[in-house]
Amino acid sequence: MKDYNRLLDDILNTVNSVKHPGSVASYIPELAKIDPDKFGISLQFVNGETYNAGDYNERFSIQSISKVFTLSMAIQSIGDKVWDRVDVEPSGDPFNSLVQLEHEEGIPRNPFINSGAIVICDILLSELDNPKEEYLKFIHELNGSDKIKYNELIYKSEKSKGYRNIAMANFIKSFKNLDNDPEDVLDFYFYTCSIDMSCVELAWCFQLFAQHGKQAADGTLFLDPNQIKRINAIMLTCGFYDESGEFAFRVGLPGKSGVGGGIVAVHPGEYSIAVWSPKLNEKGNSAKGMHALELFTTHIEKSIF
Amino acid sequence: MKDYNRLLDDILNTVNSVKHPGSVASYIPELAKIDPDKFGISLQFVNGETYNAGDYNERFSIQSISKVFTLSMAIQSIGDKVWDRVDVEPSGDPFNSLVQLEHEEGIPRNPFINSGAIVICDILLSELDNPKEEYLKFIHELNGSDKIKYNELIYKSEKSKGYRNIAMANFIKSFKNLDNDPEDVLDFYFYTCSIDMSCVELAWCFQLFAQHGKQAADGTLFLDPNQIKRINAIMLTCGFYDESGEFAFRVGLPGKSGVGGGIVAVHPGEYSIAVWSPKLNEKGNSAKGMHALELFTTHIEKSIF
Amino acid sequence: MKDYNRLLDDILNTVNSVKHPGSVASYIPELAKIDPDKFGISLQFVNGETYNAGDYNERFSIQSISKVFTLSMAIQSIGDKVWDRVDVEPSGDPFNSLVQLEHEEGIPRNPFINSGAIVICDILLSELDNPKEEYLKFIHELNGSDKIKYNELIYKSEKSKGYRNIAMANFIKSFKNLDNDPEDVLDFYFYTCSIDMSCVELAWCFQLFAQHGKQAADGTLFLDPNQIKRINAIMLTCGFYDESGEFAFRVGLPGKSGVGGGIVAVHPGEYSIAVWSPKLNEKGNSAKGMHALELFTTHIEKSIF
Amino acid sequence: MKDYNRLLDDILNTVNSVKHPGSVASYIPELAKIDPDKFGISLQFVNGETYNAGDYNERFSIQSISKVFTLSMAIQSIGDKVWDRVDVEPSGDPFNSLVQLEHEEGIPRNPFINSGAIVICDILLSELDNPKEEYLKFIHELNGSDKIKYNELIYKSEKSKGYRNIAMANFIKSFKNLDNDPEDVLDFYFYTCSIDMSCVELAWCFQLFAQHGKQAADGTLFLDPNQIKRINAIMLTCGFYDESGEFAFRVGLPGKSGVGGGIVAVHPGEYSIAVWSPKLNEKGNSAKGMHALELFTTHIEKSIF
């Protein structure tokens, strides 16, 4: 046990001693205000052992990590019919590209780029009675507490400047792959991204993907193990935009990043791990976070590969 | 003079005897209701001689032909500064493609594709006090009468289904190449497209481009001849979406088409000619209209080339 | 043990009872002659247990599976310097696309598309004294026997019709990412693809990737475990052209396919498995092979995810 | 008459007094040796009046201007069947792009980009008994003398470094849009580009396009006026790679440029004009040449528009 505490401290010291290029996400004004030097990490084994370091208890905006939650909810709702509306291939383009969407006539490449997540939100909007409430409830159940909230400032900030996402939703609608009004879909989409969570909370929620569908809080089966396997596969191939191959290559774990600087990854059957540091590299992933996870899996010499 | 009357009648008979594939524009519900077999033509020489045939007096929705009017107004307003915001190259992509816009970071390829015209409308919105009124006034002055009006049904129809254009405007805004709110720009853009004109009225207005900038109604200079030359050049290279090369090749005149089925073309120093027939080919240009103009220039053995 | 024999038989019966659309690779005349209904499978656990079914002993052209061997050799030769010349991202485009190569100025997206493998062959050509001999020797050592040979008919057939690959090699050369003459590089590249192997032989060779770098024949360490982890990661994200995401999603194993109809996959630390059936789906991967592997991992309820 | 002499002198002085950015074509080693500051111009009216300035008598490599000659020969040979193999649309991509070729499955966008000219050369190779001799003879007849020759150094230089063109020819072959061996087609293609001509000779040859198909030397009809009209249209829409719209906009004449620094343009029914200066702008067109032609048409206030 002591070893892991020391390992996380070593990692913290190493990533803080290196000067990482990049900058905090600036397209969402509210996000641009965060201290770029923050760094937190939380490691949670499936047996419950937990190790933390740095700013692991500080909440940050989960942003695109929400795409894993909404996909899970959509699969809970309509099962494999999700895949009639979204593909599962890596995109090879930046997260907000409209090029492939045009070539593939409104079918997003996968559920973890913005266009895909917007379609997933459209599904939830059609299926759920109170989408926002049920989304929060889903996270609360995963987390075993109801303290996690959405951040209204972030939500409004994104909504007022989200031209690229408005473009995307209307583009998809023009191909008839949205059932609801684009404005309503985006309102829900921005809401899902605006949740604040800490590394500890994120790693805890992602036990779901480390424990083959079992909820960490009380061990009940939350999602079919076969569906968890597929979500993990998509996290591995598509979780880091056009840096997904690089992450698989260097870290070797399924995971998901957000422009708030969070990254969460899992070794199925073993552990979940969440890191946070706001400064992003040029692909839009946390610079220190990527570095920390590479140090971690290299040190423990264990990955899914 | 008799010859031209007969020539237009012959052309009318020929295009009506051929079965043209294609269909009326369906993405704007109001346009889809038009009788696809209509055909009108009006030929007007710079000396005032005029020849007509078919449904030449019936008004139709000018749609993208408006892009020539708005460009002319923008050049009147801010001159060559227009070209800081829009390029002058043919696009090689469909009229509503977002691909090139992404590669060129929000600078539309030319002012005659939708994205380009949206930027032009943004310029007018910033420069004019009452954009809609001044736009109508511009057309009234060109036409020497104030009978031409916008069609509210078309305007509302486009507005309610214009997802692709909403996507485009927000996409351009995300690259910071719109100064105004995308919604306001689109409202004006849809308005400019919703004008109803007949072949006779269109050919008369386009005398401006046949007479090197002089207004047909009273002969006053309306636009600098050097600017008219440039607008004519853009009509030749970009007036027919990704069928522009084909039109130059087969017809050999600068011109502009709209999805309402209208096409207007000019031989600078000689004549203007407008045709209308609602059925569109797969590139979005009037099928009978393209055919009629090819017959015309082949017969008179005279083009700018 | 009996269970696995029965499982493979069941899989064989199931895939043979379904009519798979698709056809045998036709662009290489010699490949087009193979009986499309053939099917073989070989499953080999890291402890040596082996189970086979169908045409598991019949040799076929490994084609793109060779890309895993040449990449392994290049990493043995120059280590991480390989990654200066080739990227590790999924391509999102067909295996022989030149589009991304143009956008990325001659740097292939990954070593498992044709362009990437051509660059890898260029590296080997520069590094090795007798590339063809050493390539065969590499496979012989992995296989613990020297019976595997290259197929001259296939080699000549590819060479005479390989216009797309000639295009690709010269295109890369124009970006200065080939050191040798394109013709020499292609000669070696076609040679590496022209090896004939059976399912049993392939699964045996790929124990290297199941056993973290140890050679199955005598247990010596052949490649660094950390490098094996990375090659496995690239197989997972890029091993099946633009169906890689689908394979990860449905099967959940690192693997590699070839247009000869072979697919080989590994569960690191557990087993390797090779299947063969010549009829290809529209993405260029064995139709029955994909089906068989999906049945297998679904049945044993065990994947890396 | 004196005015035109003075005008050309003024233009020469103006373009020489400005510092144009850019550099001599470097991908063909032999071309890189030329003095970048050279400038020549020749203006020839259809009535025979001729005005020259600068290095108008110095021969240079015509390069892509040859594409107009080969297209004319192909139309002489097989007429409109040419258009089954090549399109007539502007490309919106650099002259040596392979992207559009992939999207359009081997049909080049137009005959004035490299891929299109390679297909045209393939046609000539199939149609002519002695393609190289007949090509030279065609130019000799147009020029009324047999002094124009091909430049062996340039030819060999291109052939040894023409990787991009080899890529293109093999790519087209892979789509089955070449009948002959790619190597043979390229040999002829490089030959056609390797002709040396002066401004005077080029403007003289291009009288064909100013005189609606009549040969300047003896007035005989060389090509159908209707075909000349079409070739002129393609020169206007496609003659300057992805700067074609800009040239039409600024200069307003059909024309063709080459990476040797030559540009030749025509005003049908009026005159032909050739300029030469080796330094190229970033689009691959002569920097001084573009400038000179813009000055010329702006001054004489006369273009086809």
TrEMBL record, chains A, B, C, D:
Binding sites annotated in the UniProt record for substrate: 64, 114, 158, 165, 189, 241, 259
SUPFAM superfamilies: beta-lactamase/transpeptidase-like
Presence of keyword Hydrolase: yes
UniProt keyword list: Acetylation, Hydrolase
Gene Ontology molecular function, alphabetical: glutaminase activity
InterPro entries linked: Beta-lactam/transpept-like (IPR012338), Glutaminase (IPR015868)
Coiled coil: none
Catalytic activity: L-glutamine + H2O = L-glutamate + NH4(+)
GO biological process: glutamate biosynthetic process; L-glutamine catabolic process
Annotated EC: 3.5.1.2
EC top class, as a word: hydrolase
Family: Belongs to the glutaminase family.
Summary of subunit composition and partner proteins: Homotetramer.
Name of the protein described by the UniProt record: Glutaminase
The organism of origin for this protein: Marivirga arenosa
Recorded name of the encoding gene: glsA
